[in-house]
Structures are given as structure tokens and as C-alpha cells.
Design goal:
Blueprint: H1 4-9, E1 12-20, E2 23-34, H2 38-46, H3 48-54, E3 58-60, E4 67-70, E5 75-82, E6 86-90, E7 100-108, E8 116-124, H4 128-134, H5 137-154, H6 161-167, H7 171-190, H8 195-210
Antiparallel strand pairs: 1-2, 2-8, 3-4, 4-5, 5-6, 6-7, 7-8
Helix pairs in contact: 4-8, 5-7, 7-8
Length: 212
Amino acid sequence: MGEIVDEISRVHREVGTRRVESEEAGTVLLRRTFDAGPADVWDAVTSPERIARWFLPVTGEFRVGGHYQLEGNAGGEILECLPRERLRVSWLFGPDLGFSEVEVRLAPAPGGGDRTVLELEHVSVVPEEFRSQYGPGAVGIGWDLAFLGLGWHLAGEGLSPEDAVEWQTSPEAKAFVARSGEEWGRAFAASGADPETVTATTVATIEFYTGA
């Protein structure tokens, strides 16, 4: 499997805000080029059988207007689906928990070849006390871990469910989380956030994920 530094550097990260009706939503965006064609990447992120191999088991009605549930994680409604190009879903950890959507966009990588640019944007309205304590890294680190798993899966190097659980507590995993948190801190700073807030939220988020 790829070195931690290499995996972290393959992802472009951005932090921003967006108005959602009368509220301000936070946004995190990740972009990475995968060494697999759009058809393969699309299948990996939409096939329940394959999602379970690199992310989590998922159940539901897999059509626009249908609902899905990731085991022990988010669930929601499938809002839009344009095969091999775009998937948009609501992303909620229970009913009536505010606004949260995830959109995945795919495009062939420039220059040809069997490579795909995958862009994921998560837009959410969260309580101010949570955002001020943890910042964008709270969701950003989770998506970095998902991109890591997807990359391993597409390369044929995925972990078994048992090995994945063991890996999560390994020194390698903690190093990955720490580097991810630092990169989200840099993206947060680039968005114009106050330096003290960036430092405090970065430390808190890394400690939360690593159990430090």
C-alpha cells in the first residue's frame, strides 16, 4: 500500500461557505485523480457490494428518491444520479438533523488514459459550538480516510473488514489522521480563518480521531 505522505498529497482540499436558504453552510471539497476509468470508479462508489468493500455496508433503495443507510453511519435520500458523472445525496445521522448533502462528481482525467478525477463536496449546516471546536477537519478527515480506502480498493489492495478494524488503531492510521488534520488546517487557514481558531480546531480534531 502507498506511503502515507504520498496518499495525503494526492488529494486537493478546499474549505468554504455557502448560503443555504437563510443559513450559512460550511463546505469541504476534496479532489483526487484515481488510476481507474470513470466506469470502474462510478461502479465502486455506487455499487452496494463494492461500497461495502472499501467503506461500509449499505442498504436501501438505490434509485433517485430512494433512501439509503450506511451501517453505523449516515443515511439519507438519493437526490440526483447521472451515471458516470454525478451523484448527490442527503447525508444525515438521524431524522430532522438539519441540512447536509454530499455530491460526487466524476470526469476523465486530462491527457487521456484510464484515469478519473473524482471531486467530492460536502455541504452542511452544523451547530456553531461544534464548528468552533472542531472546524472543517471534523468531516474532512473522515473523507480523507474514505478516499484512502477507495484508492486501495481500485488498486486491488483493499483490506478485509477484520484487517480494516485493526488498521484503524495502528500507528500508520494515526499518522495518516494527523497529517490529514494538518492539511485541513492549512485549507481552513487558506479560507481566511483566524490563525488561533485554525490551531485550536486542528489540535482538537486530531485528538478526537486518534483518541489522544
